[in-house]
Amino acid sequence: MANRRFAVHEIRHVIARMRLGESDRQIATAGLMGRAKAGKLRLLAQDQGWLNKDSPLPDNEVIERLTRKTSPTKRGQSQVLPFANQVLAWAGQGIAWTTIHQTLVRKFPFAGSYDAVKRFLRHHKQERPATVMLDCLPAWNIDPIEGEISVEN
């Protein structure tokens, strides 16, 4: 049940059962919600006064507004961005990502992680020329530029 999203009607049903006096363990045993999440919902319901039997259950909009997590905020800029030209130049030369990260830490005021460098380079992936394995007998001479093959006796 970890990280399961609950529909508003499920949350409303759990709140109704809490109002009837069921414990978090009973709610978890019934398979409605885990004990930890039920405990968090119980705290929210107590703060909002939803467990009071004399008051009506809140509207679905109110439950949704208070139980839904806010949409994730836009992530900040990459810490590699100030060094983008240098990092892309190094990557174009075939330098390993770990070496790029170590050099940034050593030479510049870079506090970012290796994963930040890796994400940046994956996002700015450059096409590399394909390499071809040449498989031939030891006595053959192959000119890869001209494509000529000659056999030595």
Helix content: 40-55%
Number of domains: 2
Give the count of helical stretches. Answer: 7
Low-confidence stretches: none
Can you count the beta strands?
Answer: 2
What is the radius of gyration computed over CA atoms, rounded to a whole number of angstroms?
31 Å
Biggest sheet character: 2 strands, antiparallel
Please identify the structural class as seen in this structure: mainly alpha
Shape: elongated
Terminal-residue CA separation: 72 Å
State the order of secondary-structure elements, H for helix, E for strand.
Answer: HHHHHHHEE
Trace the largest sheet across and list its strands: 1-2
β-sheet strand percentage? 5-15%
Keywords: Plasmid
Protein name: Transposase
Overview of this structure, please?
The protein is mainly alpha-helical and 153 residues long. The chain folds into two domains: 8-67; 74-153, no CATH class. It is 46% helix and 5% strand. It is built from seven helices and two strands; from the N terminus they run H-H-H-H-H-H-H-E-E. It has helices at residues 8-19, 24-29, 35-48, 60-67, 84-92, 97-107, 114-123, and strands at 140-143, 148-151. A two-stranded antiparallel sheet has the order 1-2. Helix 6 (97-107) packs across helix 7. It is elongated, with a radius of gyration of 31 Å.
